[in-house]
Write a structure and sequence with these properties.
Elements (H helix, E strand, L loop, with lengths): L12 E4 L2 H6 L2 E5 L11 H15 L4 E6 L4 H13 L2 E7 L8 H8 L3 E5 L1 H5 L4 H11 L3 E2 L7 H17 L4 E6 L3 H9 L5 E6 L7 H13 L6 E4 L12 H14 L8 H13 L8 E5 L11
Parallel strand pairs: 2-10, 3-4, 3-6, 4-5, 7-8, 7-10, 8-9
Antiparallel strand pairs: 1-2
Bound molecules: pyridoxal-5'-phosphate.
Length: 301
């Protein structure tokens, strides 16, 4: 039986014109990868690509994955399973709250079975005992880790990196970082002249450097020197916002027709502009920011 694949819509690159960019001599492009699929958007499409292929090749009919109540990965996995005729199970951190938020309501509407576990149990989600207990309860499934981050996810994102480099020439590529899977894929797929800059959306994101190095080591057994992570643009931590960030989202939408989500892409662009002002990009260079998606959960589209 041949595997089914998700449709992919080629996403545009837009050229952002702003005075601070002109002054600094920086050309800024945005890859609107959020537009690659209506529900499985941005980086999640690429992270799922080879996992979906593997699940089908191995004869699985069910995907099981993990996430918080606002997880874009839960949303994307539910949509992907539904589209490919697979069933899905979401192991959700914490207690059920009703009515379901937009993310979980959507996942449920796509047939995802939602299973809530305590924060303590969730912390042990990668243990053999916990996974065995999930098999006892749910039977066979293809397991996708939290955030979708594994070697097949990195393979998918590396392919995206290669596609990007054929489409456009740039000196820096910037993206938001959560688990580090996406930046690891971009590093693995980019040529080494390109600087890869991650913006941590987590507080105390310094640990992500080790995380990404481990992912890369497992993926290609190589060390790369052309990347780093900026850790001061988290605005208080994961999914935390403040009035300045929300005002920034509004400005970008109203004046530049660029919709951003408050968890990932607003912090990315905020960070990029701050770095431009601080002269962190070489004058005359071209910066590409990847819009990784995330709009669906927030009504920001
Ligand atoms: C999941 C997500 C990220 C983070 O990707 P990681 O691979 O976990 O670092 C970034 N942006 C958006 C919009 C996401 O949904």
């Amino acid at each position: 039986m041949s595997e089914r694949v998700l449709p992919y819509q080629h996403a545009p690159v837009i050229d952002l014109q702003l005075l601070i960019l002109q002054k600094a001599g920086i050309q800024l492009f945005i890859k609107r990868e959020d537009q690659n699929h209506p529900h499985i958007s941005g980086n999640k499409w690429w992270k799922l690509k080879y996992n979906l292929e593997a699940a089908q090749q191995q004869g699985h009919h069910t995907l099981l994955t993990f996430g918080g109540a606002y997880s874009n990965h839960i949303y994307a996995t539910a949509a992907a399973a539904h589209e490919l005729g697979l069933t899905s199970i979401g192991i959700i951190r914490g207690e059920e709250t009703l009515p379901l938020n937009g993310t979980l309501a959507f996942a449920k509407s796509r047939g995802m079975q939602l299973h809530y576990v305590s924060r303590e149990a969730y912390r042990n989600k990668n243990s053999i005992e916990f996974i065995q207990s999930l098999h006892d309860r749910f039977g066979e499934f293809y397991l996708i880790p939290e955030g979708g981050t594994n070697a097949l996810a990195i393979k998918g994102v590396a392919e995206f990196a290669q596609q990007l480099q054929q489409e456009i020439v740039f000196d820096y590529v910037c993206l938001p970082v959560g688990t580090g899977g996406t930046i690891a894929g971009l590093i693995a797929g980019m040529n080494e002249q390109t600087q890869v800059v991650g913006i941590s959306v987590l507080k105390n994101g310094e640990f992500l450097v080790d995380e990404v190095n481990n992912l890369l080591k497992n993926f290609s057994d190589r060390v790369y020197g052309n990347w780093y992570i900026e850790t001061s643009y988290h605005h208080g931590g994961y999914a935390k916002t403040n009035p300045q960030l929300l005002a920034f989202i509004n400005t970008m939408k109203e004046q530049h027709q660029l919709p951003l989500d408050p968890v990932y892409t607003a912090k990315l662009l905020w960070g990029v502009f701050d770095m431009v002002e601080k002269g962190k990009f070489k004058p005359g260079s071209t910066v590409l920011a990847v819009h990784t998606g995330g709009l669906q959960g927030h009504g920001f589209r």
